[in-house]
Design goal:
The complex is a heterodimer of chains A (451) and B (130). Chain A is α+β, with helices and mostly antiparallel strands. Helices cover 58% and strands 10% of the residues of chain A. In chain B, α1 (12-24) packs across α6 (116-129). Chain B has a single domain, classed as 3-Layer(aba) Sandwich (Rossmann fold), CATH 3.40.50.2300. The longest helix of chain B has 14 residues, at 116-129. A five-stranded parallel sheet of chain B has the order 2-1-3-4-5, with helices on both faces.
Chain lengths: 451, 130
C-alpha cells in the first residue's frame, strides 16, 4: 500500500532544480524587504555619522540619494506579496528587486571608492540572500554578473572613463585604484567568494525544498493508507458483527443458553477489537490533521456539534441513556480543523455514553463566552466516574482508569490523549471534574476566531 | 402486494445480515453488488426502498449512486424511492466529514455493524413516510 514511498525522492524534478513556491518566495521577499529598510536607513545614518562626526570627506549628497532611493523602491516592493498577486508577478518582483539592489550597490561602491570600497562585501551578502530564492543556474549567473559589475567599475575608473571617487582616509596613496595587481587580487577573491557562497546557499535551499516535497509525498501516502486501512480493517468486523447480531436476536433460529453465552463473549471481544481499531485510526487521523503543515481554518462549532450528537444518538438510545444537547443560539467560529473538532467532540460524547450505565443521562452544553472570547463546551454524564488517584494520568496515552477494567468497558486509552493533542494544536483548554460512581464533567474551551 | 427492498452492497456477508431480519419481517429482498448492477436493478425491480452501502468497490461508489438516484437531474420515479445509507461508525476519513454529506441525498443513515432491530425500525419509519 505504501508503493508511493518507493518512488524516487522527488516525483519529477526539474533538472535545473525545484522552483520555490509562491509562499516561499514571498517569505524571502519579506525578509529582504526588512533587511532593506535597515540597509537604506543604515546608508543614511552611517553617511551622516562618517561625514559629520568622524569628518570623513564623503560624497554626502550622492550617498544620501542612494539611501533615499533604496527606501523608496523598497516601499514599492513591500506591496508585492499583498493580496492576490499571482506566482508569476511575485517571481517578477523577486527578479526586479535583485536588479534594483544590484544597481544601488554598484552606485554605493562607486561613490565609496570603487575597487577600494569597503562596501564591496555587500554584494557577497546579497548573493547569499538571493541564493535562497533562485534556482542554481540563476544564482550562478547573478554571481558572475556581480563580478562583472565590479570589474566594470574598477576598469572604467582606472581608465578614467568614470571619475574615481576617492575617500582619502582609505586611500593614503591615492592611486591604489590604478594598481592592476590590487584590482586583480580584489576581483579574484571577490569572484571566488561570491560564487562559492551563492552555490552553497542554492544547494542547501534545493535540498530543503526536496525534503519538503518528500515529506508532502509521505503525508499523501499516509492519507491514502489510512483511507484504505479504515475500510479494510473495519469492513470484515462490521460484517462479522452484523451476522452475530442476527444470531443473537434469533433471526437465524434457536440457540441454547450456553451457545448464547458464547455468542455474547465473542461479540464482546469483537466489539473490543473494533474499539481498538477505531481509536488507533482516529489517533492516526488526528496526527494527520494536527500536522504543522495543515493550516487552521475558521470552523463553526454548532454544525459539527449537531452532527456528532446526531451520530451518537443511536448509541445512547441503545443503552437507554437520555442524551440532551443544550445550545446557546450564538454561533461560534473557532480556528481549528473540521475533522479535528469532530474527533474532539466525538470522543468526549462517545466516552460519556460508553462510561454511563443503562438508563443514565448525558448532557452537552454549548455556550459562547463573549468577554473571554471563547466558546465553552461541557459534556457531563451520570456515569461511573473516575477514581481520584487516576485523575493525573487521564491524558496519558493508553492509560485507562482502574474502574473501566473491572466494569469491562471496551477501550484503549487513546481517546483523551488524542483530544488533548488536538486541543493543544487549536489553543484549546480542557478540564475534567469527576467523582467515582457519581459522574464526570468535561469542560472544553476554544478561542474564538478573530474576524 | 409485498414491499420490495433492494440492498446495494458488495459485501455478501453484510447483504445476508440485512436480508435475514428483513425477510423474516415479510419484505421481499433483492440485492446488487456493484454500482451498475444496482442502477439496473432499481429500474427492473422498482423497489420501495433502497439500502445502500457507503463504500463499495470504489470508495465513492455509494455516494455516486446516491447522487444518480436522488441528486440534481434524477428521474422523479428514482427520487421517490427512499435511500437508507449504511455507514461505518466513527468514520474518520474525509467522506463522513466532507461538506457534501450535508446535502448527501439520502433519507437516513444506519451504522455498521448492522443491528437487526434498529434496521427494521429505520426501514419501517422510512416506508411510512412515503
Amino acid at each position: 500500500m505504501f508503493t508511493t514511498t518507493q518512488s524516487p525522492i522527488v516525483s519529477s524534478p526539474n533538472e535545473r532544480g525545484l522552483r520555490p513556491t509562491r509562499d516561499e518566495l514571498c517569505q524571502n521577499i519579506q525578509l529582504l524587504i526588512q533587511l532593506r529598510w535597515a540597509a537604506g536607513l543604515g546608508i543614511l545614518s552611517v553617511t551622516a555619522f562618517a561625514r559629520y562626526a568622524l569628518d570623513i570627506r564623503l560624497q554626502t549628497a550622492a550617498l544620501m540619494l542612494i539611501g533615499v532611493a533604496v527606501l523608496l523602491y523598497n516601499s514599492l516592493l513591500s506591496l508585492t506579496c499583498r493580496g492576490d498577486t499571482n506566482a508569476r508577478q511575485v517571481e517578477r518582483a523577486a527578479w526586479g528587486q535583485m536588479i534594483l539592489d544590484w544597481g544601488a550597490m554598484a552606485a554605493l561602491v562607486h561613490f565609496t571608492g570603487g575597487i577600494t570600497s569597503p562596501a564591496l562585501i555587500y554584494f557577497v551578502i546579497h548573493a547569499a540572500l538571493a541564493g535562497t530564492v533562485l534556482l542554481p543556474w540563476q544564482a550562478r549567473s547573478l554571481s558572475v554578473l556581480a563580478t562583472a559589475i565590479v570589474i566594470g567599475i574598477a576598469l572604467t575608473e582606472r581608465e578614467g572613463i568614470l571619475p574615481h571617487v576617492a575617500i582619502p582616509e582609505f586611500e593614503m596613496s591615492g592611486t591604489l585604484y590604478q594598481n592592476g595587481t590590487y584590482i586583480t587580487g580584489v576581483v579574484f577573491f571577490f569572484g571566488t567568494a561570491i560564487l562559492t557562497l551563492s552555490e552553497l546557499v542554492t544547494r542547501i535551499a534545493q535540498r530543503l525544498r526536496q525534503r519538503e516535497e518528500r515529506i508532502r509525498q509521505l503525508y499523501d501516502a499516509r492519507s491514502t493508507f489510512l483511507r484504505v486501512a479504515t475500510h479494510e480493517l473495519r469492513a470484515p468486523l462490521g460484517a462479522g458483527l452484523s451476522l452475530m447480531h442476527n444470531i443473537q436476536q434469533g433471526y437465524a433460529g434457536e440457540f441454547t443458553p450456553e451457545q448464547g453465552d458464547i455468542l455474547d463473549r465473542v461479540t464482546r471481544r469483537l466489539e473490543g477489537l473494533r474499539t481498538l481499531i477505531d481509536d488507533l485510526l482516529t489517533l492516526a487521523a488526528s496526527q494527520e490533521v494536527t500536522a504543522a503543515h495543515v493550516p487552521l481554518e475558521p470552523v463553526g462549532v454548532c454544525p459539527i456539534l449537531d452532527r456528532i450528537v446526531e451520530r451518537e444518538m443511536p448509541n445512547a438510545e441503545r443503552k437507554n441513556i437520555h442524551l440532551t444537547c443544550d445550545k446557546s443560539t450564538d454561533a461560534g467560529v473557532v480556528m481549528a480543523g473540521d475533522v479535528g473538532l469532530g474527533i474532539i467532540l466525538g470522543n468526549l460524547l462517545n466516552n460519556a455514553i460508553k462510561y454511563t450505565p443503562e438508563g443514565g443521562r448525558v448532557n452537552v452544553k454549548y455556550r459562547l463566552n463573549r468577554p473571554a472570547q471563547r466558546v465553552e463546551i461541557t459534556v457531563s454524564d451520570s456515569g461511573i466516574g473516575i477514581p481520584a488517584d487516576d485523575m493525573p494520568r487521564l491524558f496519558d496515552e493508553f492509560f485507562r482508569a482502574r474502574n473501566t477494567k473491572t466494569l469491562q468497558v471496551a477501550g484503549t486509552g487513546i481517546g483523551l490523549s488524542t483530544v488533548r493533542t488536538l486541543l493543544d494544536r487549536y489553543h484549546g483548554h480542557i478540564t475534567i471534574e469527576s467523582e467515582e460512581g457519581k459522574g464526570t464533567t468535561v469542560h472544553v474551551t476554544l478561542p474564538l476566531a478573530l474576524r | 402486494m409485498t414491499i420490495k427492498i433492494l440492498i446495494i452492497d458488495d459485501d455478501p456477508d453484510l447483504v445476508l445480515a440485512a436480508r435475514m431480519p428483513l425477510e423474516q419481517a415479510g419484505y421481499e429482498v433483492f440485492s446488487a453488488g456493484t454500482l451498475e448492477e444496482g442502477l439496473a436493478a432499481v429500474d427492473t425491480i422498482k423497489p420501495n426502498l433502497i439500502i445502500l452501502d457507503v463504500m463499495m468497490d470504489t470508495h465513492t461508489a455509494g455516494f455516486q449512486l446516491a447522487q444518480k438516484l436522488h441528486g440534481a437531474g434524477a428521474k422523479p420515479e428514482h427520487q421517490a424511492i427512499p435511500i437508507l445509507m449504511v455507514t461505518a461508525v466513527h468514520q474518520t476519513t474525509p467522506l463522513r466529514f466532507s461538506p457534501d454529506d450535508d446535502y448527501l441525498p439520502v433519507d437516513a443513515f444506519i451504522d455498521k455493524p448492522i443491528d437487526p432491530k434498529t434496521l427494521l425500525a429505520q426501514v419501517s419509519t422510512l416506508l411510512q413516510k412515503t
